[in-house]
Amino acid sequence: MALKEGLTATQEMIVGEQNTAKYHGSGKLDVYATPAMVAFMEGTAVACIDADLEEGMDSVGIQIDTKHIKASKLGAKITCTAKLVKVDGKKLSFEIEASDEDGQIGSAFHVRYIIDPVKFMSRL
């Protein structure tokens, strides 16, 4: 496996109406929703490892401990960086930070497992 601790990925996005608390039902305001931030964090962790996974393999998230510490408005640019901090066999641990133009808005500890998607789906 080519996955090494220290791999990082950074992604950016602009907060649109589909990313708001009002849209997700997690509140009534047009601010960046915690569920949208969590999905963006998880997607950034995936981007961190996708190119280095063995061919035909995938990963699934099993844990995410998140803090959303500051609101971001519609149109804000969100930057998310994921760092692979531990590789323990098929278990991968990440530290993730999200920020907008004014600074950090959230952080997370995230765990993913490497899986064979065919075997995984056959067990469902």
TrEMBL record:
The keyword Acyltransferase applies. It holds the Pfam family FlK. The active site is at residues 34, 42, 68. Substrate binds at residues 61, 112. Keywords: Acyltransferase, Transferase. The keyword Isomerase does not apply. CoA binds at residue 61. One of its GO terms (molecular function) is acyltransferase activity. It comes from the Bacteria. Residues 15-116 form the Fluoroacetyl-CoA-specific thioesterase-like domain. This is Dihydrolipoamide acyltransferase.
